[in-house]
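Translate sequence into structure tokens.
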Amino acid sequence: MNRTRARLSDGREIVYYDEAPGRAPVADPRGLPPVEPVCEVRRDPLTGDHVTITGHRNTRTFLPPADQCPLCPGGPASEIPDPSYDVAVFENRFPSFDVRTPPLPGSIDGPGSIDGVASIDGVERSRGAGRCEVVCFTDDHSASMALLPVSRVRTVVDAWADRTAELSAIPGVAQVFAFENRGVEIGVTLHHPHGQIYAYPFLTPRTERMLASAAANPGLFGDVLKAERAGGRVVLSGEHWTAYVPAAARWPVEVHLTPHRHVPDLAALDTGERDELAVLYRDLLRRCDALYGAPLPYVAGWHQAPVGEGRDLLRLHLELFSIRRAADKIKYLAGSESGMAAWINDVPPEDVAARLRALA
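Result follows.
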């Protein structure tokens, strides 16, 4: 993997990850004005959850035609000036978190608020001072991660690991989350094969809950993996990784991909683990696409240990899930899930595991 850094015309960073050396980045000709994001985090006093407010994101690009895709290389609307690339990563033009956000008052109290925000006494607010990046898996607009050669998936793994290490070093970042949203049903706004990385300035609710469980049982992740490997929900397994449908799956299609060794994040994976991950992850995605005979809409996210406290408790793992519960049916989050976070799954996990396993 060969890394080359450059800057876009508005000052945002772009990083190329190539399988061969020798890239000389092309200058961005667009002359964009500097990015001036205002990313604000408010804390719900009833639940303690962090809610991020980002008014500037409401104007982001939405499903443009292919000839105006901002992720295709070198086009008039492209965020990637070079005429070709293997993997490219750049700062999101419409970030949810950004260190350039100006200072904010510590609470929402009317006179001290910004942009006329109404008075809400006692609600904690802070700057969303993290970083958001876009990860382009290939310059081929019509491809997908499942269709890439293993060598390219391996380059993506190295890019994820490199970005995880770099973003974790930003002061104030609490955790790093690399993920892919795939499919219009999921809510993607660009068709080009890509993912994102969020460097959060706080711990997300799901991470906090996993840390609490692991603190009560420090061997939890190893115990779960051992039990799943002995059960009937394993989809595929190798020397270093196992993919399985969890016993308490929330989603109609849900698969976890977990390393056999307790490692905190992608950056901590060794060469053998990265090599096998590229093979097994592509295999898993191909099985998912074959499940209903069409590309599966999914979210695939890497849960990584926090940067600070609790880093030794959480094991790196991928959680892939889909809202498709049948070839012609979508699971919508209705009252119980959306209103109460009480999940109801119509598809038995054992059935999904057996079907995915049979697609080998």
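Note: Residues 110-119 have pLDDT under 50 and may be disordered.
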